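Box 3.1 A note on notation
Throughout this textbook, protein chains are presented in two layers. The first layer is the amino acid sequence; the second is a token string describing backbone geometry. Keep the layers aligned when reading.
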Amino acid sequence: MSVSGESGGRARQMRQKAEELKQAAERATDPEERKRLQDKARRLKEQSEQESAMRAGDIYPQE
């Protein structure tokens, strides 16, 4: 598999995990746990979007 294909798969997995965390947060009864899960889901989603943008050539990693 190419590097871009691996990156795309990784970004897709991250988005899927973020969605799972978001759903877990919706089910959580403890407010602190809900917030922690929501924050983690948001960070994963942002990271996956950044990887997708880098793969597309829209942005470049900082050196």
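The first helix runs from residue 3 to 27. The mean pLDDT is 84.
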